[in-house]
């Protein structure tokens, strides 16, 4: 299974088994740093791993 280096909000919510709103709240708190690609918001896997530590 190949691991992606960037995840969308929905993919991240599924990965962490939480809601999209929780991801948005973490973003507002400054825990997760979003990256914009066009109109879409993505999160780097490195930042997510750092948050989980």
Count of spatially separate domains? 1
Strand content: 15-25%
Order of helices and strands: EHHEEH
Quick one: biggest sheet? Answer: 3 strands, antiparallel
Written description of the protein model:
This protein is an alpha+beta fold and 53 residues long. It has one domain (6-52). Helices cover 49% and strands 23% of the residues. The protein has a three-stranded antiparallel sheet with strand order 1-3-2. A hairpin with a 2-residue loop joins β2 (34-37) and β3. The protein is globular. The protein starts with 5 loop residues before the first strand and ends with a helix. The mean pLDDT is 87. It holds the Pfam family HTH_17. Residues 7-53 form the Helix-turn-helix domain.
Please render the helix and strand layout as text.
Elements: E1 6-8, H1 9-16, H2 20-29, E2 34-37, E3 40-44, H3 45-52
Antiparallel strand pairs: 1-3, 2-3
Helix pairs in contact: 1-2
Brief summary:
By secondary structure, the chain is an alpha+beta fold.
Could you list some keywords that capture this structure?
53 residues; alpha+beta; 3-stranded antiparallel sheet; 3 strands
